[in-house]
Design brief:
Blueprint (H helix, E strand, L loop, with lengths): L3 E4 L3 H14 L2 E7 L6 H5 L2 E6 L10 H11 L3 E3 L9 H9 L3 E2 L4 H8 L1 H10 L15 H11 L3 E5 L9 E3 L5 H16 L4 E5 L5 E9 L5 E8 L3 E2 L2 E2 L1 E4 L6 H17 L4 E9 L5 E7 L6 H8 L3 H9 L14 E8 L1 E2 L5 E2 L2 E2 L2 E3 L6 E5 L6 E2 L6 E9 L2 H14 L1 E3 L5 H8 L2 H5 L16
Parallel strand pairs: 1-2, 1-4, 2-3, 4-5
Antiparallel strand pairs: 6-7, 6-8, 9-10, 9-14, 11-12, 13-16, 14-15, 16-23, 17-18, 19-22, 20-24, 21-23
Helix pairs in contact: 4-5, 12-13
The chain binds ligand MV4.
Amino acid sequence: MFKKILIANRGEIALRIIRTCREMGIRTVAVYSTADRDSLHVRFADEAVCIGPPPSRQSYLNIPSIISAAEVTGADAIHPGYGFLSENAEFSQICADYGIKFIGATAEQINMMGDKATAKATMRAAGVPVIPGSDGLLESFEQGQQLSANMGYPVIIKATAGGGGRGMRVIKAEGEFEKAWNDARTESGAAFGNDGLYLEKFVEEPRHIEIQIVGDQYGKVCHLSERDCSIQRRHQKLLEETPSPIMTDELREAMGAAAIKGAQSIGYEGAGTVEFLVDKHGKFYFMEMNTRIQVEHPITEEVTDFDLIKEQIKVAAGVPISGRNYTPKLFALECRINAEDPANGFRPSPGKITNLHFPGGHGIRIDSHVYSGYVIPPNYDSMIAKLIVSGQSREEVLTRMKRALQEFVIEGIKTTIPFHIKLMDDPGFKSGLFTTAFLESFDFSTL
Ligand code: MV4
């Protein structure tokens, strides 16, 4: 087992990882920018190294600084958390070259899943259902137009280097094709330095359901059921739940088997997520694979009783998994509490938390790095807490979540709490019959 893990991240996920390391008897090294000098991850870790000024490029994305910190402190592994360097192939490779275990995917796997057209081709070859469309990248807009005419509109063009909605265009009719093509090409070229595009039939009002998987170094992969992430605004998830309200035992078995097959085909080791779109007929299609721990992993932990960070560390150290799949024993919901003003376009609201009180009681978990007096720096992600509620039924969880949200006190800044409170009373949300389009018609003006 590792003796010392460096955590190449900040905020709640850095704390989350430190907590598990402490329970496992593994020493921890925090790295921090000068903006995070007073952060809890710095105080809770056994050692801490300053790696640069506030901008991420010069600190949490600064590979030489982080590798130096690992060398100086004698860390034998690095946990990248989510975001930052968690899906950076170069960083994974450099860790390997320095003999430091990267707790995540190999450079090759990151490259393969990071290029969306390659990821799709890989999954299709493994027998995972994919959305009908172009075979790899489009060579010209004429080819795309021809294919779309054959498939029928609407279609969607996606940037192969994209993900999270960037460089995507939905096309409803042939006349829109050329402009959409040019716009997507320009946008993806500028954003990613890669203007490769591929085409798919557009799935209308789908649900976004992802399967949590864990693989070991011996070719075994298991799934830990699904998370429903259909409640998003502009590709930012705001709330996740498990089990999905539309899930059946049969669908879970089929999606779980597909996710395992896909992960096994690339020799995947560690925790990963396979994202699917589910259409209104209950047919599912591979969308993307995330080769990292995700923000919303705690809801899976609450319903399966696994510590996913512990699983990541164990498989990275060569411990085999049982290989058995898990179905939820409970219901769980996560609300992302962001320092944003939901009544004003979710505008960021950094600054000082002047008064703070966390909710508590049965079935409540809070993953957060903030405290009363903490100053939220403007340089990073605006998520300041995850409120995770579990219970015996979806109804119980919704009631408990509303109670917890009402108990939550955060003064000095605006947060997404009023949005979540309104959501808990929304008939469409309560019915469980929402799609990814749900928030497009939500009234944010009355928060
Ligand atoms: C789609 C789609 C419909 N049809 N692909 C959005 C993020 C990116 N990962 C892929 N996305 C979508 N791909 C086809 N063929 C609809 C979306 C989509 C979406 C997906 C999941 C969650 C929220 C979404 C919001 C808008 C569009």
